[in-house]
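PROTEIN DESIGN WORKSHEET
SECTION A - STRUCTURE
LENGTH: 173
TOKENS:
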């Protein structure tokens, strides 16, 4: 296997779990919400100045700021990865770097599924506060429609993680 692959979707679709499963299978995968220092951060949408997110901070913050990827750092990570690399995440500026990938996968499930997963997860608090959940429910469809129009491969993530990873891997051979 060779190539660069981006796996995206709204919060709660399993991106972090998929990155972990890919790593467990011996494949290089980066979770954009992980501890890769400086890869992604909250920034003001207009000024691009750093913003400090706190869980439950509210709707006004989420409308004025977003999660952005440092594209130059992403390029360096992809270059160092070797023959195959997966990046799992969703950022406000992902349209600016989708061209770095051979294929883009969109994880998709009904809102009640990703909402339930967000409520039950313990490794990330984002989306649990009502204002955060309202924000996610307000833009996920636009995200999905935009990615589909750009040719993203839709993967039903309503299944167990191992099955979802198998489906992704089938689509890169």
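SECTION B - SEQUENCE
RESIDUE ASSIGNMENT:
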């Amino acid at each position: 296997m060779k190539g660069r692959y981006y796996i995206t979707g709204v919060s709660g679709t399993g991106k972090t779990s998929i990155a972990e499963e890919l790593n467990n299978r011996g494949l290089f995968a980066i979770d954009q919400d992980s501890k890769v220092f400086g890869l992604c951060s909250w920034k003001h949408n207009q000024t691009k100045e750093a913003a400090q997110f706190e869980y439950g901070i509210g709707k006004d913050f989420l409308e004025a700021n977003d999660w952005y990827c440092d594209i130059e750092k992403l390029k360096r990570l992809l270059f160092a990865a070797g023959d195959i690399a997966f990046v799992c995440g969703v950022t406000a500026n992902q349209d600016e770097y989708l061209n770095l990938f051979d294929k883009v996968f969109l994880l998709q499930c009904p809102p009640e599924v990703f909402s339930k997963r967000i409520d039950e997860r313990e490794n990330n608090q984002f989306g649990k506060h009502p204002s955060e959940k309202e924000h996610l429910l307000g833009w996920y469809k636009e995200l999905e429609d935009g990615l589909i129009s750009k040719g993203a491969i839709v993967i039903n993530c309503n299944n167990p993680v191992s099955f979802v990873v198998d489906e992704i891997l089938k689509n890169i051979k």
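SECTION C - NOTES
The chain has one domain: 3-37+73-170.
The chain has a mean pLDDT of 91.
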